[in-house]
Inverse folding.
C-alpha cells in the first residue's frame, strides 16, 4: 500500500482499514505479537474497537494510528471462523461472453453452487459474474425466466 499526502488537504478514509491476521498455528507467540503491534499503533492513535474478545475472534481490535490509517488486528481461531455465505459476494461485470467464460473458468470451484450467474470459488466465497449490460438484457421479454435456468450467464440466450 502506498499513501500519498503532501500536506493536510486529504486524510486517509476511515472506511478503509488494513486487516492483519495473527495466526497461532503458524506463530506460537501470535497473541504477543498482536499485543505488541496494538501498543505501537494505539500510541497517539484513536481506538475504534477496544482490543478484546468478539464473536469473530478471541482477540481483536480496531485502531487508527497517529496518521489516521485504520488497522484491524485479529488473532485467528480456525474453530470459530464463520462460513462464507452468499449474503456477501463480489460482482464482476464483464464486457462480453469471452470475458464471462474466462472469469467463470478461473473462479468456479463448486458446480453445485452455480446458479443464475453466481458461483463459489475454492474458498467458498460467492461471486456474481455478469455482463456489463445486465439491466438492458433483463429488459428483454422472457429474460428473467431464461436466466433462472442458467448456471453461467450466456448473453446470447437472454
Amino acid at each position: 500500500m502506498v499513501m500519498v499526502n503532501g500536506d493536510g488537504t486529504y486524510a486517509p478514509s476511515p472506511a478503509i482499514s488494513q486487516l492483519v491476521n495473527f495466526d497461532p498455528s503458524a506463530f506460537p507467540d501470535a497473541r504477543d505479537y498482536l499485543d505488541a503491534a496494538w501498543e505501537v499503533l494505539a500510541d497517539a492513535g484513536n481506538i475504534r474497537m477496544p482490543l478484546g474478545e468478539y464473536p469473530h475472534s478471541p482477540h481483536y481490535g480496531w485502531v487508527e494510528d497517529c496518521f489516521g490509517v485504520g488497522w484491524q488486528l485479529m488473532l485467528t481461531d480456525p474453530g470459530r471462523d464463520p462460513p462464507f455465505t452468499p449474503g456477501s459476494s463480489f460482482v464482476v461485470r464483464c464486457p462480453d461472453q469471452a470475458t464471462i467464460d474466462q472469469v467463470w473458468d478461473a473462479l468456479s470451484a463448486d458446480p453445485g453452487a452455480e446458479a443464475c450467474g453466481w458461483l463459489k470459488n475454492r474458498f467458498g466465497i460467492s461471486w456474481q459474474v455478469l455482463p456489463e449490460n445486465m439491466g438492458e438484457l433483463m429488459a428483454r421479454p422472457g429474460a428473467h425466466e431464461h436466466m433462472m435456468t442458467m448456471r453461467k450467464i450466456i448473453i446470447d440466450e437472454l
Summary: Helices lie at 30-42, 97-107, 134-138, 143-149. The chain has four helices and seven strands. The beta strands are 17-22, 46-54, 57-64, 70-75, 89-94, 118-120, 126-131.
